[in-house]
């Protein structure tokens, strides 16, 4: 990376202007010292970030992990969520203090060649995320309305219209809609887990790391959960949308206030995402442990929820329908954030601005291609799509260190962040430990897979 110079930044001095210019500095905050009023005003970006931690990719890895390994991988969900909170805190702080998103900062302090390479990897990570949304949305449409998977995949291309409509309503409305859909997902799975009556002692012991995690099967699924939980594209998203609030950007007290309440917002929303991911894994374990090989697809889970032979006395068609509704809500939520992230990454890394609708069509079109090929080649076999989804999540885990390393580096620099906002040494240490540990686990996974 280029050596950081001792300079002050304003949102006008980045190479391509403010991040997400149309919504940057648009949401007013109260002139009040009330904690709750300020928390409410700053709440919203955390919800858009949390969406990435409960998308369809999480579903197949978390429920599948519970069905195959019981409560063992709850410790992975916990550690992933704690890592996510740490990284999202740093991402929001980077955006608020420097008025650059992570893509802009990375491009500014790297060579053009490195910037383009990082852009390509990040775009592939966004595509991997989009693959999960396409598959989840298509399967949900199939379960709810009987549409063939091929038709459902094609229909997901047109969700660009949904985002364009929401953008006209204003960013605050988008945040409210996303939070509403998250609440729907939460209620559905709280209800289903209560009916499943999990073994609480086994459940609590699952939060303690176990030796079995080092074997290949558990490691693959565990890294899939990490990839589905700690999303690299969310670091770019949060560093941008944390700048949507309107405050005095030259006043250090105002900046500190923004960092404080953005952190509160992020941690509260990510706690909600952590609960939902735990519910997914607990549901898979409580109802289907030992049957993981027979429940590897969304359709098999949908059918199992209404089959007394599998789900026992709690089986009900209502549970299946609620499952499909929540799946559809999850896919649509992720669609909104994926589009915004694509715009941030393209403008930040290669300084290219194109209309939102064109960006959405291109991104979704590229993501649909491998899903269409897989659907046509395997004749609409959902198991093949689910395998594609799982490996897309493992790829996200492999791509994560490429986003983590610049983030930790930038937020640990006094020259860039200033004495007041630079990471404390213990935060920097934790950040580097997470990046190194995750990179090591990914290398181990690749070696074992190839051998």
From TrEMBL:
<feature type="transmembrane region" description="Helical">
    <location>
        <begin position="219"/>
        <end position="237"/>
    </location>
</feature>
<keyword id="KW-0812">Transmembrane</keyword>
<feature type="transmembrane region" description="Helical">
    <location>
        <begin position="361"/>
        <end position="378"/>
    </location>
</feature>
<feature type="transmembrane region" description="Helical">
    <location>
        <begin position="430"/>
        <end position="447"/>
    </location>
</feature>
<keyword id="KW-0813">Transport</keyword>
<dbReference type="GO" id="GO:0046872">
    <property type="term" value="F:metal ion binding"/>
</dbReference>
<dbReference type="InterPro" id="IPR001046">
    <property type="entry name" value="NRAMP_fam"/>
</dbReference>
<feature type="transmembrane region" description="Helical">
    <location>
        <begin position="178"/>
        <end position="199"/>
    </location>
</feature>
<comment type="similarity">
    <text>Belongs to the NRAMP family.</text>
</comment>
<feature type="transmembrane region" description="Helical">
    <location>
        <begin position="145"/>
        <end position="166"/>
    </location>
</feature>
<keyword id="KW-0769">Symport</keyword>
<feature type="transmembrane region" description="Helical">
    <location>
        <begin position="390"/>
        <end position="410"/>
    </location>
</feature>
<feature type="transmembrane region" description="Helical">
    <location>
        <begin position="69"/>
        <end position="90"/>
    </location>
</feature>
<keyword id="KW-1133">Transmembrane helix</keyword>
<dbReference type="GO" id="GO:0015293">
    <property type="term" value="F:symporter activity"/>
</dbReference>
<feature type="transmembrane region" description="Helical">
    <location>
        <begin position="35"/>
        <end position="54"/>
    </location>
</feature>
<dbReference type="GO" id="GO:0005384">
    <property type="term" value="F:manganese ion transmembrane transporter activity"/>
</dbReference>
<protein>
    <recommendedName>
        <fullName>Divalent metal cation transporter MntH</fullName>
    </recommendedName>
</protein>
<keyword id="KW-0472">Membrane</keyword>
<feature type="transmembrane region" description="Helical">
    <location>
        <begin position="116"/>
        <end position="139"/>
    </location>
</feature>
<keyword id="KW-1003">Cell membrane</keyword>
<keyword id="KW-0406">Ion transport</keyword>
<dbReference type="GO" id="GO:0015086">
    <property type="term" value="F:cadmium ion transmembrane transporter activity"/>
</dbReference>
<dbReference type="GO" id="GO:0005886">
    <property type="term" value="C:plasma membrane"/>
</dbReference>
<dbReference type="GO" id="GO:0034755">
    <property type="term" value="P:iron ion transmembrane transport"/>
</dbReference>
<feature type="transmembrane region" description="Helical">
    <location>
        <begin position="270"/>
        <end position="290"/>
    </location>
</feature>
<dbReference type="Pfam" id="PF01566">
    <property type="entry name" value="Nramp"/>
</dbReference>
<comment type="function">
    <text>H(+)-stimulated, divalent metal cation uptake system.</text>
</comment>
<feature type="transmembrane region" description="Helical">
    <location>
        <begin position="310"/>
        <end position="329"/>
    </location>
</feature>
């Amino acid at each position: 990376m280029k050596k950081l110079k001792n300079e002050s930044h304003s949102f006008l001095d980045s190479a391509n202007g403010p991040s997400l210019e149309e919504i940057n500095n648009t949401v007013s905050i109260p002139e009040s010292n009330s904690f709750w009023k300020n928390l409410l005003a700053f709440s919203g970006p955390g919800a858009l970030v949390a969406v990435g931690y409960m998308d369809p990719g999480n579903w197949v890895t978390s429920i599948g992990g519970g069905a195959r390994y019981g409560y063992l991988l709850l410790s992975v969900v916990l550690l992933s969520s704690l890592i996510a909170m740490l990284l999202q805190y740093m991402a929001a702080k980077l955006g608020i203090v420097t008025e650059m998103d992570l893509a802009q900062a990375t491009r500014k302090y790297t060579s053009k060649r490195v910037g383009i390479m990082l852009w390509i990897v990040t775009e592939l990570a966004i595509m991997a995320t989009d693959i999960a949304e396409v598959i989840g949305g298509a399967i949900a449409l199939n379960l709810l309305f009987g549409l063939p998977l091929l038709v459902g995949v094609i229909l997901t291309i047109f969700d660009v219209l949904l985002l364009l409509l929401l953008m006209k309503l204003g960013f605050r409305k988008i945040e409210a809609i996303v939070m509403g859909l998250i609440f729907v997902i939460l209620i559905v799975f709280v209800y289903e887990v209560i009916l499943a009556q999990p073994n609480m002692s086994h459940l609590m012991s699952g939060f303690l790391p176990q030796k079995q995690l080092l074997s290949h099967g558990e490691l693959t699924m565990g890294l899939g959960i990490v990839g589905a939980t700690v999303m690299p594209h969310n670091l770019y998203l949060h560093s941008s949308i944390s700048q949507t609030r309107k405050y005095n950007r030259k006043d250090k007290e105002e900046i500190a206030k923004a960092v404080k309440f953005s952190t509160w917002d992020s941690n509260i929303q990510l706690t909600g995402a952590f609960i939902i991911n735990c519910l997914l894994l607990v549901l898979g374990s409580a109802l289907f442990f030992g049957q993981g090989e027979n429940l590897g697809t969304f359709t098999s889970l949908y059918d199992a929820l209404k089959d007394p032979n599998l789900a026992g006395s709690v089986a009900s068609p209502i549970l299946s329908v609620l499952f499909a509704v929540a799946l559809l809500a999850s896919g649509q939520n992720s669609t909104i954030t994926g589009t915004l992230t694509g715009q941030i990454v393209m403008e930040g890394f290669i300084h290219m601005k194109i209309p939102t609708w064109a960006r959405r069509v291109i991104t979704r079109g590229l993501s649909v291609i491998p899903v269409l090929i897989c659907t046509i080649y395997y004749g609409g076999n959902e198991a093949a799509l689910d395998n594609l989804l799982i490996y897309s999540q493992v790829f996200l885990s492999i791509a994560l260190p490429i986003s983590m390393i610049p983030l930790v580096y930038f937020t640990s620099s006094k020259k860039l962040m200033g004495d007041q906002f630079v990471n404390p040494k213990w935060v920097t240490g934790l950040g580097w430990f997470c990046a190194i540990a995750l990179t090591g686990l990914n290398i181990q996974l690749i070696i074992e897979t190839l051998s």
